[in-house]
Amino acid sequence: MSRPGPFQRNPFILVLCALALAWSAPVLAAESLQQVLKRRGLSQQDLLAAAKTYVPTGERDEFLAFASGGQSGHVIVYGVPSMRILKYIAVFTPEPWQGYGFEEESKAVLAQGRINGRDITWGDVHHPAPSETNGDYDGKYLFVNDKANPRLAVIDLHDFETKQIVVNPIFQSEHGGAFVSENTEWVLEPAQYAAPLGGEYQPLERFNEEYRGGLTYWKFNREKGRLEPENSFSIELPPYSQDLSDFGKGASSGWSFTNSFCSERYVGGIERGRPPFEAGCSAKDTDYLHVVNWRKAAQVAAAGKTEMINGHPVITIETAIDEGLVFLIPEPKSPHGIDVSPDGKYLIVSGKLDTHTSVFEWAKVKALIDAKDFAGKDPYGLPILDMKKSLHTQVQLGLGPLHTQFDPQAGIAYTSLYVDSMVARWDYLKGELLDRLPIHYNIGHLMTMHGDTVKPRGKYLVSLNKLAIDRFNPVGPLHPQSHQLVDIGGSKMQLLYDMPLPLGEPHYAVAIEAGLLKPRIRYKSGTNTRTGEISPHKTRAGEERIERDGKRVTIHGTLIRSHITPEIIEVDEGDEVTIYLTNLERAQDQTHGFTVGKYNVHGSFEPGETASVKFVADTPGVYPYYCTEFCSALHLEMQGYLLVKPKGYKAKVGDLMPKEEYGQADYEKQVATNVATQATIDEVVAFITSQDYKAHPEVVALVEDATDQLGRAAEAKKKTEIEAGAERWHSATLWAGQWWQYQVKAADIGLRAKNILEEHGATGRP
Ligand code: RUQ
Ligand code: CUA
């Protein structure tokens, strides 16, 4: 065993060396701003754009965007205006860094999304929807959908983790979803490609009779933070390929709106010589906007006027007609988005194949419904309202209009023009086009800040582009996705920044004011983060144990800088091993990872979290395990051995530490180091306590952590003294080393706290 010399052991000496090196470096003249602009070929306009997006080091963004991660099955979180990616939230797809789908606790969440007994390990995530209070984002929850395998997931924004996945009980696919009602009582998931409800087989020849679309309204329990399948219901609809939706608000509260395409009910078959779907599904000039009285529908469902399909209550088309729940309005063909204005008075629909964007007026629609003034009935008997009588205006914005978002200024909206590759700013009250900005290329959705709520914040717009083509350095035929940041604060829109997203296609994104998000930094010790409950396997320091019950070996262990307890696990070939680990840390950002090599085992343990990994030790051998996060100076030493003994192996184990290498002199040297270190710690503590550190929550957290570490140092000191008292110098020296380890951690944390206090003094930021 080689002992580190004083230069490796004392962090303060290291810092001094680094400073000395910096002083001796050659001095270069600093470049002026003009010189940098010239060298990099930047214009004044570029400089202005940079100044609008640049977030100085240590500072934070104004908004957090949550973008669907498309085929990745994740959600992407980034800051606006810096466009810095902050997190990928694993939702439908396993993600090893977060332990998602590797730890038993998160496997249980993914297992909720099994369909027909099959694990579905990916998702096609399209539309995120934040929870709302009175029609505005409240920063508490986020809902996302999976188009391919009709499912919804609930992400808790208290910790940015996926807590629940529900499988749609009657659809074969969906697209619209998730959309939330003004107070998040309901989360709407509309079907997409029509199919027999409940999943049974029916030949395509029976399309009109047996295939159906529909809307599922999931009840959300805010206290529990979970969707309640037992209190949810659906409405059966004709096979019109229902699509995006929006909840009414304000004037249109209690109603929801869903558009559709292929109301032609065309069934393709290009290989049979029939015109393909794309021709048959765009033959008519109009499709149907579905206008739904959800508040009444919920009462109808609660009264039991439903049919059960797969144990799920469904309001039939017949009942919907009898109770006056669903009305149709012709809308320009192949529309994509339906967006309700912040006051709930206007419904904006764009037909992809029509140059018009149509503004329907809720008061007119409602008057027609109330007067039962119908223009006709669809083949299923649903009442149709007259399109012209429902319209406020139609505006020519450009080619391929898709989605609309709103501005704080009344009447101002932004609509994406897919074919033209532009964003249009326009006034939907006056029916006037105001400005257009070229986009690169083929914009799909767009997002303004809180842009689909009752209170849009304006400032920025992000264009979610379908193609990147030549915008970034080439990385092969599969290009990154591309988001462009646009300044909408002035009278002319200004393009500020291109951001590549190399994860999957983000369809929609929402941006929430950063101040509304208050995620926790640690869990209550022993929390199963996926259920929110304290795990029965929570383990405190000193309670670590290895237990055997027949072939089942259960380990209760702990993680703390910089050791895993236990450090040696011995099992027999074929044993079923479960390892529960509790991260004892309380400090911010002190996550530990855990893996046992070659057993496909990994976990991520945030401060306070208890989670577990499980495997059958079917291959004998020696398996190092270790912490996978560089958590501390002695992170590499955060290790252990799993020994899997072959069947029939007879143990001949001797003393693990037979050598007596260190004597009294080593012991005294170590103690002298510790005493010197303590003096430095005392200085740092004196500095911190001389400041008004309680005004800085981050510093308070660090001080708590440092106090923890010093408590552990005191315990190790006691053990040291017992060993020294018995003149067991070797063991006493090692315990003195452990005492020093805790001191170093405390000093490290103390210095971090000191830095923060000094920096805050300099920047004046609270
Ligand atoms: S998508 S580009 Cu919402 Cu799934 Cu529209
Ligand atoms: Cu814990 Cu590395």
- Low-pLDDT residue intervals, each spanning 5 or more residues: 1-9, 13-22, 762-766
- Using only C-alpha atoms, the radius of gyration works out to 31 Å
CATH structural fold name of the largest domain: Methylamine Dehydrogenase, Chain H
Q: Whole-number average pLDDT?
A: 93
CATH evolutionary superfamily of the largest domain:
YVTN repeat-like/Quinoprotein amine dehydrogenase
Largest sheet composition: 6 strands, mixed
Which architecture of the largest domain would the CATH scheme give at its second level? Answer: 7 Propeller
Attached small molecules:
(dicuprio-$l^{3}-sulfanyl)-sulfanyl-copper, dinuclear copper ion
Percent helix range: 10-25%
Quickly name the level 1 CATH class of the largest domain: Mainly Beta
Strand portion: 25-35%
